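Notebook entry, cofactor series.
This is the third protein in the set we're modelling with a bound small molecule. For this one the ligand is zinc ion. I'm keeping the input format identical across the series so the outputs can be compared line by line later. Sequence and SMILES below, as received.
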Amino acid sequence: MARRGSGHTAKSAGKRGKGHLPVKTCAQCGRPFAWRKKWKAVWDEVRFCSERCRRRFPD
Ligand SMILES: [Zn+2]
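Returned structure with ligand:
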């Protein structure tokens, strides 16, 4: 058996909704998050999944 990645369980792997949104990884909590309408203008600069994570990031 080949080992692949760490032990994340892939539940509900996305066949949901139409189209695919771009996804990034949060620089604070490390979780993936998808594009949102509110980030339309600033998506390139978005680094955090939420305001909460953004505030916690020491910078
Ligand atoms: Zn986050």
